[in-house]
Amino acid sequence: MSQSQMEPPYINSVNLNIHTDFPYLVLNITNDVAIPRNPGFQVMHWHEDLQFIYVLEGCIQIRTLNETVLLHEHEGIYINKSIVHLVEKIDHCVYKSFLFPDYFLSFYPGSPARELTTTITENANLTLVPLQNADWEQEILHHLQKLVTFETNKTAFYPYEVLTTLSNLWLIFLKHVTVPKQNAGNPTSQRMQCFLQYIEMHYTQNITLNDLAQSANVSKSECLRCFKQTLQTTPFRYLIDFRLSKATKLLKETDLSIKEIMYQTGFHDQSYFGKCFRQKTGCSPKKYRQR
User: Fold this and answer.
1) Is the pLDDT of residue 181 over 80?
2) What's the Rg (C-alpha) of the chain?
3) pTM beyond cutoff 0.85
4) Residues 221-224: contacts with CB within 8 Å, 24+ apart?
5) Taking CA atoms, which of 52, 105, 135, 276 is between 20 and 30 Å from 161?
């Protein structure tokens, strides 16, 4: 089984610069190559960062759990934090992806700018905002073009240039984006985000169907329905596949024993772990590591 088949369906893509003093990440994508390669590239994922994309050439599409947006050359999009999504190329494409934490836009602790920002970033019903033809959208695209140029000619003022440009861009965004009511939107999509985030955070533990349902304040039957409708699988099957994807990563990237990996990924019986692993990959954990 190929590596891509072993990736979890949805992952939490962590900012590669998260532990630096300037966690601003710019991805340069040409077709199937991303520099640097982020964990969420070419797989369904979510992240705690805000994201803007600007298309330099070609065409891409952005897909969430319940909507798809097509972007062409010189168009862009805003992707809200914690939104499960996938960016796919349609044809030859070149685009930039800008990721950064929302506190970049708050200026200082306790700032009134924080409340203005969270009206958007904490609203689960605001998922994608395409930036295409409207005058205000063109203004934001102009600022995204400036961010592109900063990458090719970094000066001693680079961080300040980025921060001021993001602030100006965000002010335009705040003035023009229509913020949906929190009780509107697609409840299945919102519940699935709760379920997936709960699994990401607790997959090493013993997760019951009741635990998962309570993470989104719904019944067990509703939890089962959501998984069936969106992923065509069960919560249990998804959890096993997620754990196995984590196990394959540890087998490839660490020297941990197979038993340690079994426990670290939420399995507690070695024969069951081996059985699940063989069903998914066609070989034992030991042989997978040797390959």
Assistant:
1) no
2) 21
3) no
4) 222/191, 223/191, 223/195
5) 135
- pLDDT per residue as tens digits for the range 57-85: 999 999 987 789 999 999 999 999 888 88
Largest CA distance in the chain: 62
Higher local confidence (pLDDT), 55 or 13: 55
Q: Compute the distance between CA of residue 95 and CA of residue 89 in angstroms, rounded to an integer.
A: 10
Per-residue tokens: 255: 């020297």
- The CA distance from 136 to 128, in Å, is 16
β-pair type (10-12, 44-46): parallel
Average pLDDT over the chain, rounded to whole? 89
Per-residue tokens: 136: 């205000």
Q: CB 137: neighbour CB atoms within 10 A? A: 20
Tokens of 77: 């999009």
Q: How far is CA 182 from CA 27, 97, 111, 185, 216, in A?
A: 31, 27, 23, 8, 15
Q: What is the pLDDT of residues 142-162, one digit of tens each?
A: 999 999 999 998 999 999 999
Provide the CB-side half-sphere exposure for 220 (13 A, CA): 6
- Which residue is associated with the tokens 């998260």? 18
**Helices marked H in the chain:** 112-121, 135-152, 158-176, 187-202, 209-215, 220-231, 235-253, 258-264, 270-281, 285-290
